[in-house]
Every structure is written in structure tokens, then in C-alpha cells.
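Input (structure):
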């Protein structure tokens, strides 16, 4: 649900349109060629502040239709890209400025009253309504959701996706596939096609060495990952990844001492490695020791914005 909602919320960067009532009119008319279904309408929507795995507040939304209750919690990263939509925080002393009460209030006071009675099967129209009509902010990059907060809008969008899938009688992954194939045309969603289609599990990307904002070492780059692309199934890929991870622990302890096997924010090792090449070499050694050289590729999430020096227009790699 997270990836689908991100795509939906970020799908309007290409052309800037002025906010107005166009999207509201889409929602107030017939349900885009869909058969009437009162059970698919929003009965209630509630936002609340919860705490994530790092101990920081984030936003949860809970949406109820005639088909049941659906919830979603917004993920929040340690680093922020310069082109990302705005994650609305409260500032001040509470939770060291990271509180989300403003975003929660925007769900409860602005979004919820406007979505009550709306059809959750209209994913694109509802997303556009929130982004353009209810929020309406824009900049040179697209729509930052700076009024309501991207964390408020995304929480609700993910709830709508889960509720919409149930309204169609589909699993979430089946529904997301149909949204993609139909270019978000709800009237073209084919339940039978979705249920008989062959699906592939994605290759798991495992973050095994942490740097940047995820750790306290000197590695500028944030995530050193392994991708078991040579595995024949997801089950095998998971096994390969786990074996490389445990092999890496032995490599780290042998190279940097027992106390170097501590982990960062996301469970990857965070040894006192001085440069990125050193981290990559440790990974290659672990892959070889685990016996999976032909099955595993390396991947990186660099998070380059975090070590970009705007004054010198250079990237500070620590040397």
C-alpha cells in the first residue's frame, strides 16, 4: 500500500494545474461508470499520532466503510531528499519538535469532513481532491502538500487504497496492479483478470550496513544493501540474504572487533568504517564466505542530499 500511495501522491509532478473545484466535481457526480455501492462510501475517518520504530511520532489514519475498518501508518525516514513533499511536524519542545499533532488535526478537521460519504473506489479522484482542492500548495517541483502535510495526505491515501481493494473484493496487491494497468480508471478494473493474473514477488533488498543518518559512524552513504537476484524464489532469496547477513557479522567482528557488531537504525551493522569502498569490500567478503557469489548483487541507497555542501556545490565524502 505504501508504494502505491506514494506513486499516486507523486503522480502530478509533470504538469502544474491550479487547484479549484474540478476534482470536487468529479467526486460529487456519478461514480465514474461504477455500479452504485453504498458500502464503499466513507463512514468515518480518524487521524491519530503514534510512535514509530525510532521512537519518533508519525501519523496513523483509520477509515471505516460499510466493508470494514482500514488503517495505515505513515513511514518516516531519517534522511530527507531535497525534492520530497513536506512532512508536517509541530516544532517546539514536545518530542523535540517532531510531534505530528498539526497533521493529525488536519485529518480530523479538514480531510475527514470532506471525505465523508465519498466512494473509496475512486482512488485517483480522491487523491487529487486532497492534493489540489484541500491542500492546493505548489512549487517548482510539483505539489508539496505543505498545507495539510504529506504525512496527513499519505496516511489517508493508503487507507483509501486498502478500503478500495476490499470494496472490489481484491487483495491489495491485485488492486494496485489493476490501478496501474487501467491508469487509475476505476470503471475499467477487472476483478476476474486481477484474480487470474500471474504475479511475481519482488527481489528483497536487504540493508546490511548502515551509514549516514542511520548510524554513528563516518560512512557518508546511508544504506549498503544486498539483492539476491540469482535466487529462484522469494523463499530462497530470504535464506540467501540471512546467510550473508550472518556471514557479514563474522567479517565485521574479525576486522573491527567484537564491539563493531552493533547495529544502526534499520538493523544493519554500523562498524567504524572510514570510507564507502571499505564497506563494499566487507560486503563482498561476506557474500563469498556465505557461498553466494553468483546469486547476490550489491545495491546502494546513497541519500546524497545529506552530505551535499551547497556552499561549495560539492559532496562531502569525508576526505
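Output (sequence):
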Amino acid at each position: 500500500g505504501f508504494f502505491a500511495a506514494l506513486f499516486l501522491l507523486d503522480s502530478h509532478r509533470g504538469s502544474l494545474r491550479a487547484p479549484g473545484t474540478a476534482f470536487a466535481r468529479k467526486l460529487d457526480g456519478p461514480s465514474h461508470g461504477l455500479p452504485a455501492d453504498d458500502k464503499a462510501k466513507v463512514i468515518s475517518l480518524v487521524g491519530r499520532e503514534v510512535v514509530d520504530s525510532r521512537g519518533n511520532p508519525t501519523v496513523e489514519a483509520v477509515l471505516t466503510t460499510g466493508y470494514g475498518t482500514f488503517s495505515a501508518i505513515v513511514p518516516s525516514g531519517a534522511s530527507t531528499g531535497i525534492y520530497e513533499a513536506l512532512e508536517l511536524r509541530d516544532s517546539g519542545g514536545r518530542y523535540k519538535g517532531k510531534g505530528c499533532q498539526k497533521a493529525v488535526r488536519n485529518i480530523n478537521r479538514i480531510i475527514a469532513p470532506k471525505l465523508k460519504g465519498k466512494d473509496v473506489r475512486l482512488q485517483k479522484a480522491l487523491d487529487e481532491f486532497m492534493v489540489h482542492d484541500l491542500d492546493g500548495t505548489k512549487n517548482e517541483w510539483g505539489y508539496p502538500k505543505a498545507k495539510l502535510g504529506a504525512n496527513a495526505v499519505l496516511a489517508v491515501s493508503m487507507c483509501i487504497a486498502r478500503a478500495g481493494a476490499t470494496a472490489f473484493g481484491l487483495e491489495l496487491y491485485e488492486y494496485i496492479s489493476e490501478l496501474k494497468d487501467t491508469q487509475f480508471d476505476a470503471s475499467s478494473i477487472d476483478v476476474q483478470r486481477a484474480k487470474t493474473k500471474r504475479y511475481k514477488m519482488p527481489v528483497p533488498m536487504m540493508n546490511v550496513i548502515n551509514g549516514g543518518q542511520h548510524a554513528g559512524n563516518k560512512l557518508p552513504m546511508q544504506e549498503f544493501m544486498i539483492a539476491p537476484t540469482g535466487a529462484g524464489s522469494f523463499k530462497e532469496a530470504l535464506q540467501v540474504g540471512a546467510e550473508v547477513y550472518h556471514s557479514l557479522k563474522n567479517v565485521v567482528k574479525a576486522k573491527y572487533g567484537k564491539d563493531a557488531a552493533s547495529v544502526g537504525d534499520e538493523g544493519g551493522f554500523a562498524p567504524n568504517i572510514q570510507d564507502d569502498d571499505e564497506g563494499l569490500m566487507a560486503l563482498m567478503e561476506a557474500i563469498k564466505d556465505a557461498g553466494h557469489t553468483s546469486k547476490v548483487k550489491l545495491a546502494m541507497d546513497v541519500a546524497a542530499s545529506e552530505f551535499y555542501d551547497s556552499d561549495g556545490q560539492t559532496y562531502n565524502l569525508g576526505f
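Notes: Residues 5 and 158 are 6 Å apart (CA to CA). The chain has nine helices and eight strands.
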